[in-house]
Structure formats: C-alpha cells, structure tokens
Design brief:
164 residues, alpha/beta, 3-stranded parallel beta sheet, two-stranded parallel ribbon, 41% helix, 12% strand, globular, disordered C terminus
C-alpha cells in the first residue's frame, strides 16, 4: 500500500494487511468486499490502487473490490475528537476520475470490481479496528463491511497520535 497512507494513520499498515489476509482466507471469503476509500493525494493514486489490487489478488484472485469516492463530509468525525481534518479543499471525484481509478484496478488484474457510480443503497457496516469484534459481528449480524475512522481508532488504540 502507498507510503502516503502511513503519515495519516501514523501506524503501520501491517494490522490492516493481517486483517485483510485473515478474512480473505476465511470461510467467509466469498462474502467479503474489500473497500478502499479514495482520499485525494493519499490513497487515490494510480500506484496505490495498483499495489492494493496486487496484494489482494495474491491472497484471493476472486476477491470483490470496491473503491469508495472521497466523502468531504468526513471532517465532522474529526471535530468530535478534537483533531484537525486538513482536507477541506477537496471535493468528490467526478465520474470520469472514478472511471480512471476503475481502469487502473482492472489493468492491475482485479476480476470482481464493484462500480457504484451514483448508486445509493443501505448497508450494515461495523466500525472497529478490533479483529475479535469483527469475528464476533460476522457470526451474529448481517454486516457487509468493516470500516473505521479517527474517533474509533483513538478509542481502541489510545496510544496512537493521529496527525492529519
């Protein structure tokens, strides 16, 4: 994954990779969708998307993959934990920009790319970075994904300093 991500989360991406490897090798691998939030100048680069896809298909060539358009409303979550957001000037990616990112993922070898340009739907997603919570949730709830944000990370891993 891109070196641009590390300064944002201020931790190694190793935990993220271990969790992804775990779910993509589990009995639930066919139900899993790996999602990458596209953050301008950070995760939304051709190199990063290419590296993520190569990592995923090495574990499971049939993995389902989705890229989430940047959400400029995310700043509200940072305010809740008294953190500076730092990306106020960015907007959502256009349909053409999203298509470019889809093309990069396809060229890198992803087979099951989920494209949702303009589509709206309801989903159940658990907010955590704790693998045990994820395992338990999958057993008892019809969740479709796992996500996190700075407030969740700060609560679950209090020694981390998030600098954005």
């Amino acid at each position: 994954m891109s070196k641009n991500i590390r300064p944002v989360q201020n931790v190694s991406s190793q935990l993220i990779k271990e969790n992804i490897r775990y779910v993509l090798q589990s009995e639930y691998k066919d139900k899993v969708i790996i999602r990458t939030p596209l953050i301008p100048t950070m995760s939304a680069t051709d190199e990063n998307i290419h590296q993520i896809v190569k990592f995923l298909i090495q574990i499971n060539p049939e993995v389902k993959y989705e890229m989430l358009n940047y959400n400029p409303l995310a700043s509200a979550k940072y305010e809740l934990v008294n953190l500076k957001y730092g990306l106020e000037s960015y907007q959502m990616f256009t349909k053409q920009q999203m298509q470019h990112f889809y093309d990069v993922a396809l060229q890198a070898g992803i087979k099951n790319l989920i494209k949702r340009i303009g589509e709206k739907r309801m989903e159940f997603i658990i907010d955590t970075v704790n693998l045990e919570d994820i395992k338990e949730a999958v057993e008892y709830m019809p969740i479709v994904g796992v996500t996190s944000n700075p407030s969740i990370v700060k609560k679950q891993v209090p020694k981390i300093s998030l600098n954005i």
